[in-house]
Design goal:
By secondary structure, the protein is an alpha+beta fold. The protein contains 11 helices and 11 strands. A 6-stranded antiparallel β-sheet has the order 3-2-1-6-5-4, with helices on both faces.
């Protein structure tokens, strides 16, 4: 009888191992078949839920600029509230794993001083056990995967869960690194390296799409075209390096002013274009006025000790009032801007 039980147990474990190997084989094929980050994360989400059955789990990525972690995926109770939370690298279990780059199994969080109640308090949740692993590629931590509480009541995570999650994280980290590299290459072809705004190549592509959409649905597209006043003086007085820094600062001011649906481009030199889909001409004019004021009140090149101030001239045009296609829209906004240049500078004029 005992021998039979042992055989059945061995057969069950063997079958489970075969299923796990098959799952990892499927995962490897799926992750190497795409360079789309969202698709990769969806595949990971599906496999984690299937293999490890956590009550709550999340995938956090490292924001290198801010040196913190943000929730890229959250599954389970209170998911919507957790998405707005950021953790410092080193904060809580996830932050500790990101900083140290090592996996962690915590069967009882009440006995671990590294555990932070920040997440629990925000969603009124009770964390009992955690397994958390780093997403590492080429020695660099890209983020962490954190599982919270087993689906089965009263059960804690075990070493076997940690081993499975580590294997899954290895696959995931390589796929994320490849996707981010591909994304970066794509961004370089459509982004102005200096200002981090889009370049004119992307402008024409986006504008053609929005103009066609406006024609089909009888909606509006507005454009703001502006040029920095006397920018040549900055290069002559402070040098081209500081001129470039001033353009980069302008890019940040523009980015901060945009709505999510708008796009901004560096058109060339010190000329900038903002495309505002589904926006009436008056709305674009008001936006341009706010941006004009932000630029004229801004102190540029503070870090360099130069404290430079300058202004900008703006032109506003819209479809269908002033144009029927992308080139006509650019021309109308550009001409309105040049009328300001020839009159007073530091103003906004509509086509």
């Amino acid at each position: 009888m005992e021998a039979r039980k042992c055989e059945e147990s061995f057969a069950s474990e063997h079958d489970q191992r075969i299923r796990q190997l098959a799952t990892f084989s499927e995962l490897g094929k799926a992750l190497t078949s795409t360079l789309d980050l969202k698709e990769i994360l969806n595949i990971v989400m599906e496999k984690i839920s299937e293999m490890l059955q956590p009550k709550n789990w999340s995938l956090l990525l490292v924001d290198e600029e801010k040196n913190d972690l943000y929730f890229e995926i959250v599954v389970g109770e209170g998911a919507d509230k957790l998405r707005d939370i950021r953790l410092k690298v080193g904060e809580g279990i996830a932050g500790w794993v990101a900083r140290e780059g090592v996996s962690l199994l915590v069967p009882d969080v009440n006995k671990d001083p590294r555990f932070s109640k920040k997440g629990d308090e925000s969603i009124k949740f009770v964390t009992k056990s955690i397994v958390c692993v780093p997403l590492k590629s080429k020695g660099k931590c890209l983020g962490v995967i954190e599982l919270i509480n087993k689906m089965s009541e009263g059960e804690s995570f075990k070493e076997e869960d940690l081993l499975l999650l580590n294997t899954l994280a290895d696959y995931t980290a390589i796929a994320i690194e490849n996707a981010k590299f591909f994304q970066k290459i794509q961004e370089l072809t459509i982004t102005d390296d200096l200002t981090k705004l889009y370049n004119s190549r992307y402008l024409y592509r986006f504008l053609d799409y929005e103009v066609e959409r406006a024609r089909r649905y009888k909606s509006k597209v507005a454009m703001v075209f502006f040029d920095l006043d006397k920018f040549k003086d900055v290069n002559d007085m402070h040098g081209h390096l500081n001129g470039s820094k001033l353009l980069a600062e302008t890019g940040k001011l523009v980015t901060a002013a945009l709505r999510k649906v708008d796009i901004a481009c560096r058109y060339g030199g010190d000329e900038f274009v903002i495309v505002m889909p589904q926006t009436v001409k008056d709305g674009a004019y008001q936006f341009a006025e706010k941006l004009r004021s932000a630029i004229s009140n801004h102190i540029f090149l503070k870090e360099e000790g130069l404290n430079h101030q300058l202004t900008a001239s703006f032109g506003v045009a819209a479809i269908p009032e002033d144009a029927h296609n992308a080139l006509e829209l650019i021309r109308a906004a550009d001409q309105a801007m040049y009328r300001v240049k020839n009159k007073s500078r530091n103003a906004v004029e509509m086509a």
